[in-house]
Amino acid sequence: MRLVKKFGGTSVATIERIRRVAAICLGSREQGHEVVVVVSAMAGETNRLLELATQVHQGAIDREVDVIVATGEQVTAGLLALAIRQAGGDAQSFLGHQVKIRTDSAHACARIESIDAGPLTDCLAARRIAVIAGFQGIDSTGSITTLGRGGSDTTGVAIAAAIAADCCEIYTDVEGVFTADPNVVPNARQIEQISFEEMLELASLGAKVLQLRAVEFGMNHGVPIHVRSSFTDRPGTWVNTEDPDMEQPVVSGVTVVVDEAKITVRDVPDVAGVAWKLFSPLSDGGIIVDMIIQNISAGGTVDMTFTVARSDCERAVALLTKQCSELTGAGKNITADSGIAKVSIVGVGMRSHSGVAKKMFELLAGESINIQMISTSEIKISVVVDEKYAELALRTLHDGFIV
Fold first, then answer.
1. Which of 148, 151, 292, 357 could form a disulfide with 135 if both were Cys (CB 3.0 to 4.6 A apart)?
2. pTM for this entry
3. Average pLDDT over residues 195-208
């Protein structure tokens, strides 16, 4: 088999842990597998490098900051290649430009456009383990780019797609994907197998075990992903295509997000194009809007309520006040609430089961938790509640649907 193994920052946080990773890679190689490894920076290193850059330059992450932060993965790749050689194996390290991971030029959030698999296949043909610095690439001008936090996950799955690997193993400090955050829900259990579609929803709704773009790459290119711990030998969670012959659980996971804010714009004229005028300045400002509700009010007006990232709330209100004064009365009808949480249930079984929403609302009502907003898809229901009820709502829904 041809395997891609990606190791996160906690898995390579110390020299001892790097030696353990080398042993894992050599173990797979001794079993006859071809092995390509993608590594993150050592735990805490990216933050340290960003702090150094901030001490010199206050501003947006640009070309030079990407040059700085990309060095964290470079160090890890070199150390792991040396550790594999020290343990009796043969390894070669590669940086993003050496594999030619081509990206666009959006520094700190670049997207992969293409990968030249030639250097890696040559390395494997020579019976060496290829060790790749994750998180980085180069744009059309040859400048170093980075893929954003968690970007090494995306590198791993993209490399697996480029070399037609049998799977991509994502090694982390947890044993797999759980039905809820076990730090909040003690009886959360590990999921053995989950569909790409469900994992996409969970990742977008706050489950931090996998980067969203990595799941997208896996689904688009048919790369099975195995999320597992680098500290045990136990199997983890397989993220794969949905098996039509398998009975799917109604709800596979429950998540909570507490870093959003709710904005309400009242008494907006109920005329064609008003939503476009309202949300255009937010889009132009790079602010992502999540849930949206429109209510018709008396007197030919509507109220618009929507959620944004909490860090964007103040800027969103300022943009609306400045650019939409003709719609909002110069800001007098805009209110914001940062004390909210979004709680969601996800499961492909919702497609074939009725009454899921009814049960969800009944469970929350039983704990006197008021629902402020509701959003649904085929396999997801999300509600906004007061932040003080976030953990109670999470445990209530987990116990009601999964335990």
1. 151
2. 0.86
3. 87
The full 3-state SS of the chain, as one line of letters, equals CEEEEEECHHHHCCHHHHHHHHHHHHHHHHCCCEEEEEECCCCCHHHHHHHHHHHHCCCCCCHHHHHHHCHHHHHHHHHHHHHHHHCCCCEEEECHHHHCEEECCCCCCCCEEEECCHHHHHHHHCCCEEEEECCEEECCCCCEEECCCCHHHHHHHHHHHHCCCCEEEEEECCCCCECCCCCCCCCCCECCEEEHHHHHHHHHCCCCCCCHHHHHHHHHHCCCEEEEECCCCCCCEEEECCCCCCCCCCCCEEEEECCEEEEEEEEEECCCCHHHHHHHHHHHCCCCEEEEEEEECCCCEEEEEEEEEHHHHHHHHHHHHHHCHHHHCCCCCEEEECCEEEEEEECHHHHHCCCHHHHHHHHHHHCCCCCCEEEEECCEEEEEEEHHHHHHHHHHHHHHHCC
Give the pLDDT score at 331: 47
What number is the average pLDDT over the span 358-375?
95
